[in-house]
């Protein structure tokens, strides 16, 4: 199953942290998406549950955009794919180590550089804007159009959240 959406946005999360979208850039360039040191795609931040592979991970104005495939040949991958379909998508969450940060006027941390370790599929994200859409792999033009409209909708919602 193909999933995509915002792995992270520049919005303050429920823990009180803000991670600037650009904070991920050096880490993505340094570690890449494959191999033993590559950024992992997990279920609920559990290193014992790799979920598939990240196909695209890029910094955009609104946040960190991810496109990944859930491996349904793995038993829990099948379960997560079924749950994702039933819910119309789940959410993403990022696991990182802080590298550089400052405190804003409310004395909350704003991370300007992080070492991104993994992106996880989760039910309840710390960042409520880190949402996913799921699509089946297909060459059907109608499905592709719906997926494109979903991406536009997610982008607009994320940008709307930044303007608050």
Helix content: 25-40%
Structure class: alpha+beta
Into how many domains do the coordinates divide? 1
With helices defined by DSSP (H or I, 4 residues minimum), what is the helix count?
A: 3
Give, in order, the helices and strands.
EEHEEEEHEEEH
Distance between the termini: 33 Å
Characterize the largest beta sheet: strand count, sense, and whether it forms a barrel. Answer: 5 strands, mixed
Radius of gyration: 15 Å
* Global shape: globular
Total strands: 9
Assembly context of the chains: single chain
- What is the residue-mean pLDDT, rounded to a whole number? 90
Strand percentage: 35-45%
Low-confidence stretches: none
What's the arrangement of secondary structure elements?
Layout: E1 2-9, E2 18-19, H1 25-31, E3 40-43, E4 46-50, E5 52-60, E6 63-70, H2 75-87, E7 91-103, E8 109-122, E9 132-135, H3 141-162
Parallel strand pairs: 2-8, 3-8
Antiparallel strand pairs: 1-6, 1-9, 3-4, 5-6, 7-8
């Amino acid at each position: 199953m193909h999933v995509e959406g915002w792995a992270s946005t520049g919005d303050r999360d429920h823990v009180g942290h803000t991670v600037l979208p650009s904070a991920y850039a050096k880490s993505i360039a340094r570690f890449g998406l494959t191999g033993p040191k590559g950024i992992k795609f997990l279920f609920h931040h559990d290193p014992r549950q790799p979920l598939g592979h990240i196909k695209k991970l890029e910094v955009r104005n609104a946040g960190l955009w991810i496109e990944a495939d859930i491996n349904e040949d793995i038993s829990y991958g099948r379960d997560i794919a079924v749950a994702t379909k039933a819910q119309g998508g789940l959410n993403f969450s990022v696991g990182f180590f802080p590298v550089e940060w400052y405190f804003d006027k409310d004395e909350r941390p704003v991370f300007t550089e992080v070492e991104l370790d993994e992106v996880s599929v989760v039910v309840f994200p710390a960042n409520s804007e880190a949402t996913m859409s799921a699509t089946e792999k297909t060459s059907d033009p109608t499905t592709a159009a719906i997926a494109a409209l979903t991406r536009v909708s997610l982008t607009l919602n994320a940008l709307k959240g930044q303007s608050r």
